[in-house]
Amino acid sequence: MGVVNVTPDSFSDGGEWFEPAAAVAHGRELLAQGADVLDIGGESTRPGAQRPSVEEELRRVLPVIEALAADGAVVCVDTMRAAVATRALTAGATIVNDVSGGLADDAMASVVADTGVPFVAMHWRGHSADMQSRAAYRDVVADVCAELSARARDLVAAGVAADRLVLDPGFGFAKLAHHNWSLLRHLDRVVDLGHPVLVGTSRKTFLGRLGVPEGGAPRPPAERDAATAATSVHAARLGAWGVRVHHVPSTLDALRATAAIDHAGDQSTDGE
Ligand code: PMM
């Protein structure tokens, strides 16, 4: 899944694709590079971010979704708002990705239930303005699994099709670096919840801290793609259904290399 943030302030690529024409061109580039799905969002969820109005969010995403869906792309709308999801689906999106898993807007579950589209429900403990204050866990893997399965149960009870529900542990959302690493290490337990799993580690701050001395500034987002490829390959190995990334070629190459290893023959010599 390739990311198209139509925002002025996303941590990873803020402002780069804010103009509709630039966002559409970027979406096309990601498709040409091998993305299967484009995730298009108009609200930054970086820690401390303020929310745009509904009208502003619609203004950002609708023209981009319309153009890319008209090209034949599989488009996923990244939104916490039922009204935006509804309009995005009419404009050609066919998947809804909600970082709040339906918690930010009571009407989201019924929009998804009524339209029958796949729904990505991420682990979430509150809006970005103060989410890092909620990064307290007894056992992060057990707590995230319990909260995600409670969410899945409530969504299914609200009419969301169980076989179209994708779960995401929410890397970087109300998580400290060591929480993210533990969740990656034990991702098989999220997979064991029985739903497809989406993993979005791409360019997140915990990756930018690798190799940086204690107290040093994290490396800039564009220098986190090798670590993104490594964590995405790990996620795929542990059974993730999808990985959400900004730089498609690096992660795709890493995934292809591991697939080539998996499919290699056992002979150590040719034809002997
Ligand atoms: N991360 C961001 C935005 N949307 N959606 C899902 N399902 N999972 C994520 O981890 C996720 C997301 C924040 O990253 P960005 O600002 O680079 O888009």
From TrEMBL:
Domain of life: Bacteria
SUPFAM superfamilies: Dihydropteroate synthetase-like
Single biological process term from Gene Ontology: tetrahydrofolate biosynthetic process
GO terms for cellular component: cytosol
Pathway listed: Cofactor biosynthesis; tetrahydrofolate biosynthesis; 7,8-dihydrofolate from 2-amino-4-hydroxy-6-hydroxymethyl-7,8-dihydropteridine diphosphate and 4-aminobenzoate: step 1/2
Pfam family, one: Pterin_bind
InterPro entries on file: DHP_synth-like, DHP_synth_dom, Dihydropteroate_synth-like_sf, Pterin-binding_dom
Family label: Belongs to the DHPS family.
NCBIfam families: DHPS (TIGR01496)
Protein's UniProt name: Dihydropteroate synthase
Originating organism: Pedococcus sp. KACC 23699
